[in-house]
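For reproducibility, we list the full input for the 4'-deoxy-4'-aminopyridoxal-5'-phosphate complex.
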Amino acid sequence: MRAKSKLKSPEIFIRPLIRNIKGYIPGEQPQESGVIKLNTNENPTPPSPKVLKAIKKATDSRLRLYPNPNAKKLRQALAKLHCCEPENVIIGNGSDELLALATRCFVEPRTASTKIQKNISKQTIQYFTPSYSLYPILANIHGARKKEFKLTNGYGLPEKKGLNKGNWDFQAALTYITTPNAPSGAGYKTSKLAKLCKIQDGIVILDEAYADFAEETALELTFRFPNVIISRTFSKAYSLCSQRIGYFIAHPKIITALDKIRDSYNTNELGQAAALATLDDLKYYKGHFKRIIKTRNQTSKILKSIGFDVIQSQTNFIFVKPKGLRAKELFTKLREKKILTRWFDTKSCRSWLRITIGTEREMDKFLLSTKAIVDNHKQR
Ligand code: PMP
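The corresponding predicted structure, in tokenized form, follows.
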């Protein structure tokens, strides 16, 4: 018979750091049917028929085998696309995995004795607010110091003068910059990002999850500055969220270091096959980018015409401040009508709603519902 444990709870075995942190809360993935999903920046169009075929073709008895540990073919294809070498590329189980690996690779966990500024910087993860809400969570998990810096009004990047004044850490071990920004959708000029990267004495990750919808990409900066990493994903623009494929482009020494600490089989064979087939059919996707951008601009215009504040977007989502009712209320009322959007309960985002661009029909329904909710609210 098993002896009864005297322990009341196994919690005491959990490191205090982990016990006390909150995990990332992903956007809702509803099980019910008939929901219009405008909450997690997924692409409303399916992967190309060639991609679906490639996944099916790879689905056979080979599933018993481990996948290619280095995603060799995919790295070669990406290197060709971005005019670099496979040694400049690492593939992750979504870019989220790589963003997390970067904390372990570049940042010292926080220690008590940090009187010297330089030591503090080595333990610091820095990012603008608002930006991707995963960054603070990654810093917490790693036990790093967090340094937040507010974007300017309109979600722009501050100038050097502003950075100096606001106590920006030019030596921070790791700086994440979401470009174009999420959740605001604001885009940044490469020339401006270049100035920032040049004066930064630490790793800078330019998180380009939404770059395919933007006017510019800052890819060239990784070839100009050895401390700059470009982060990309197949999730958003390439309709492959489910397959979990993201990648970094960086100096080979950076890639080698990250490679040492990743899981040997971090990406699966079907994901690798899907991403490879995607790269063979880029024309299909480019057509969809144009459509999404057109729908995005039309939706923004209509929302502006009913008095909403809308940030000029360079992504596949828009960030809007409703007129006449609170963002949270609009979010809840839309939810009741089975339309999902994303509302963040933080100081800088609470008055705003992030809306992913869906199909034209979905956006028509969203606009009709939004107008009805706003009108109904006026009459109360
Ligand atoms: N960066 C940003 C800014 C994102 O919004 C997301 C998606 N939530 C990611 C990275 C991660 O994407 P994935 O892990 O699907 O590649």
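The radius of gyration is 22 Å. Residues 282-305 form the longest helix (24 residues). Both points were considered when choosing residues for closer inspection.
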